[in-house]
Design goal:
It is built from 9 helices and no strands. The chain is mainly α. The radius of gyration is 19 Å and the shape is elongated. It starts with 7 loop residues before the first helix and ends with a helix.
Length: about 200
């Protein structure tokens, strides 16, 4: 069986009914990167985020016999990460801040085929976008990151954050309008520079 071709629900079933460790590993490989990024937005510490995700997956394995009773495992693990992150913050008595630009910037790569001037403009645009994401209101920024960086759907975000899908849509609209304004402003500046 090729686990890489299985859907999350199939992996969930294999783990629950057959205690399939390869299915568990595939599930981890698929979900962990997004979960770590999600946890990092809460705790602002990569090592702590990795430990939180590890704890969540240990919990999944310990409770594997009951996995078939979970309707949406992806939402379940993201809610668990959020709860574990909140517990971590309470224990450390720290307040959540927006992820610093320097930590996000390294994850963005510049395509090799661009000309030097295009590379400079691309990097400047990315930097401006990242700054504007960090300037969004906290909830709006969190929702925007969940949708765009972790690829979560509106319904999943709503369930994870315990808010209505309409609220998620409204916050995404605010985020997109802000990004559009930033892109228009940057494009206008580049056009003026070239004139």
């Amino acid at each position: 069986m090729r686990y890489s071709e299985c859907h999350i629900e199939e992996l969930q079933h294999l783990i629950a009914t057959q205690e399939d460790q390869l299915a568990y590993k595939e599930l981890y490989n698929r979900l962990a990167p997004g979960m770590i990024a999600f946890a990092t937005h809460y705790v602002h510490d990569l090592q702590a985020a990795e430990e939180i995700v590890s704890d969540v997956f240990i919990r999944v394995w310990v409770r594997r016999a009951t996995l078939d009773h979970i309707g949406n495992l992806k939402v379940y693990v993201y809610v668990s990460v959020r709860n574990f992150s909140n517990n971590y913050l309470k224990s450390k008595k720290t307040q959540s801040e927006i992820l610093p630009l320097s930590e996000i910037e390294n994850t963005l790569a510049t395509p090799d085929y661009l000309q030097p001037q295009q590379i400079v403009h691309t990097k400047m645009m990315r930097q401006r976008i990242l700054v504007s994401i960090n300037q969004l209101p906290p909830r709006c920024g969190e929702i925007f990151r969940m949708a765009k960086e972790e690829g979560l759907k509106i319904a999943e975000i709503a369930e994870i954050l315990k808010i209505s899908p309409k609220t998620v849509e409204n916050q995404l609209t605010i985020g997109f309008k802000k990004m559009a304004a930033v892109l228009m402003e940057f494009t206008d500046k580049v056009i003026r520079l070239r004139s």
